[in-house]
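Teaching soon. Got one?

===
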Amino acid sequence: MSLKQRDFSDADFDEIDALLSQLTEEELECLAGEVDPDDPHLPPSERCRDQTKKQPTGPYDREKLLKFLEDQGKNEKDWEQNKEYKKEIRGKVWVPPPKPVQEEHPELDHVTTEWDEILSGASEAEIVELAAILGFTGLVNQVQFHAAEKNDSGIIFGGWNAAAKSETLKFVPPEPDNKTDVEESIKLLQENDSTLTSLNLNNIKNISHERMKQIIEAMKTNTNCKNLSMANIEMPDSVAKTIVEMLEDNTTLLTLNIESNLLTGLVIADVCRATLKNQTLIDLRLSNQRAQILGTKVEMDIANSISQNSTLLRLGIHFNTLGPRAKVQDVLKRNWDNLRLKRINEKNQQSSANGDDEDQE
């Protein structure tokens, strides 16, 4: 047991002093060697016994000590090496391979062909064009090769060291603005006009929120419009909440596109949940919204809503989590299979009905 673990509360220090006074000098020195060096009750100077018995040789002199060490290092003899240094080369010495000797064929110097006169009078650019036509891709650059394939006479082939220049950019006119009349579209939707079956309001700027709500409110009772596109019109959540109500009332809408707007994850989940009431929508596009990352909880909510939908065939939305993404893919695949089986059953029933009519005749 160490001194730290012993209890000295009952110790009589007067008796300890009496005992120490009876010890000899050698016994006291031996007892001092058994003192615990980690005992906090003793000062640091008393924890280790003094083991130096030499007498001091004099005061400390730093310069004298450094000079002594330097002289000692110079006077001491170096260690003898067991083997003298000699440069040795191990392994095989690399020798460059001999250059191939070109064989001379003097008998071919007098051979002539019908192309000698043509090739001797051709310029370097014409020879480069011929090499490109023959398919010597290692001798020509990419521009020269494609020009020879297309038989483009406007390309200057140049020489053997011609640089491959970039082709001039072709001007592509910008797409025209969407010129759909919003006011006229609202009027046609409210009148339930049969000629308006598809409404495209994509990329129209400065549509007020009131106009957006009027369009969606008119779609609640409209029975002719089947395709509604309102992408990239800066639609907020307040307008999208009316879309939730519209999907619960409308039974003729087949395609809804509200991509590239300012919707949040909770509203997107509400839109997906609203498709469950009538289940007539087959194409729903909701990607590229303000909330780029929906979160695991919202994605699971969307996946659970889509899993209960038996008519949705296409869903435009980006999932960051693997579980909801795989679940939605399986549901859409199931809906496509059910549609295919329904079409096959209808075809079989029609063929059987036509067969019964022929039998009756």
